[in-house]
Specification:
With 181 residues, this protein is an all-alpha fold. The protein has 9 helices and 2 strands; from the N terminus they run αααααββαααα.
Amino acid sequence: MRQFFRSILTALSIACLAASFGSLSLHPALAQIGSPEELKPIALTQTQIDGVLASQKEIAAITKKLPRNAPPSSKAMAQLEAVAKKNGFASFDEYNTVIGNISLVMDGIDPDSKKYIGSQAALKMQVDQVTANKKMSAANKKRELAYLDMALKAKEPDQNQGNVDLVVKNYDKIDAALDIH
């Protein structure tokens, strides 16, 4: 289920085509994903993944308090910068780039087998799950299928195999840390 919500957030960020700070004003969790078209691809390191894991609770606590449709205050940005720097990042922008690259790989991992299958295949699996869900209301099902459809229409970014290997290796820790329920 966490994988499903991450994909919805990715779909929204793709649809919005917003920069990291622009995404932050739409919904706090979107700031941590960024849009693939604007995301700088980088080769991830274990140190960066460890930094994201160490900072996630503090970052989430700050972003949770931000208003949904307003830019973050300078105080909130200063807090985010401080948490990022405390956990080994040069800035909150670098943190966003790292977590964006992690999220793109996470969206392509099958949560059952924990193997990378690509985001398009993972999204198709989620469409099947939503379609088969008898407990979901028709309105929620329609909305979630629309989000997934947006994500399916987006071009799947090329993945650095080293990033895939690192994220798969750390899948359980990342999945637990990025829990957005």
